[in-house]
């Protein structure tokens, strides 16, 4: 029981951290998409023009930003549901519920690692283009660098926004690993307890049947008078 309580508290704490980290993914990414007028910064490339020193940008697919955004929203919803569910839990979880927790943990783990890779590699590609002109990617923030910028793209906060999003994605991956391991441990523990209960029940039934069989197999006691009277007949 003590182990189960420790694991339950660990799951609640893990989902609280996952809720905070999912906000670190969703909010900065939404702000960046708004400031870039719906364009995705990740994996965006371009060339610097010698004539005016502007960046001739080739925008990447919005899917590179959409997937981390969907991942953050998914983690946000799952963490809220699990926090509410674990906080109200009184009885022991069923095997099906524990199995669902393991499956959710695997999904969160896979989506968070993919999102973290997309954000990290995509931001590196963007910064490689920025460092061709500026000494660092951070110093390019806030500069009017986009050629033909009729949409008034705001580049002032992209470095902090993408850095926060990257931190949230890798943090969510680490927490998802812990949550998945705890869910798997609870599933294994539940399976072991069920096997022990089944074994104890079968052993008890075997002993009961053995005692019943021993009671019926005891031979009857034959009286001496009846045995002496047989030869006379």
Describe the structure.
There is one protein chain. The chain is mainly alpha-helical and 233 residues long. 70% of the residues lie in helices and 3% in strands. It has helices at 2-35, 63-87, 95-130, 158-216, 224-232, and strands at residues 45-48, 55-58. Strands 1-2 form a two-stranded antiparallel sheet. The model has no long low-confidence stretch (mean pLDDT 84).
Write the layout of secondary structure elements.
Elements: H1 2-35, E1 45-48, E2 55-58, H2 63-87, H3 95-130, H4 158-216, H5 224-232
The largest β sheet comes out as: 2 strands, antiparallel
Distance between the termini: 74 Å
Relative strand content: under 5%
Task: Give the SSE order as H and E letters.
Answer: HEEHHHH
**In order across it, which strands form the biggest sheet?**
1-2
Number of helices: 5
List how many beta strands DSSP finds. 2
Structural class: mainly alpha
Overall geometry comes to rod-shaped
Helix fraction by DSSP (H/I, runs of at least 4)? 55-70%
Radius of gyration: 33 Å
Mean pLDDT: 84
Indicate the low-confidence ranges by residue numbers.
none
């Amino acid at each position: 029981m003590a182990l189960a309580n420790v694991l339950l508290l660990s799951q609640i704490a893990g989902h609280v951290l996952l809720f905070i980290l999912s906000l670190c993914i969703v909010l900065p990414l939404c702000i960046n998409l708004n400031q870039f007028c719906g364009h995705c910064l990740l994996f965006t490339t371009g060339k610097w023009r010698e004539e005016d020193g502007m960046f001739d940008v080739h925008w990447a697919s919005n899917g590179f930003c959409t997937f981390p955004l969907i991942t953050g929203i998914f983690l946000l919803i799952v963490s809220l549901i699990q926090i509410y569910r674990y906080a109200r839990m009184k009885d022991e979880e069923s095997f099906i519920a524990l199995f669902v927790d393991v499956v959710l943990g695997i999904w969160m783990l896979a989506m968070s690692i993919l999102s973290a890779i997309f954000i990290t590699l995509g931001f590196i590609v963007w910064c490689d283009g920025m460092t061709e002109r500026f000494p660092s990617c951070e110093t390019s923030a806030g500069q009017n660098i986009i050629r033909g910028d009729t949409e008034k793209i705001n580049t002032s906060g992209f470095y902090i926004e993408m850095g926060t999003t990257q931190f949230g994605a890798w943090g969510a991956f680490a927490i998802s690993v812990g949550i998945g391991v705890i869910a798997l441990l609870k599933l294994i523990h539940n399976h072991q307890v069920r096997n022990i209960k089944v074994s104890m029940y079968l052993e008890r039934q075997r002993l009961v049947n053995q005692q019943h069989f021993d009671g019926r197999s005891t031979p009857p006691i034959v009286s001496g008078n009846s045995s002496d009277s047989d030869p006379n007949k």
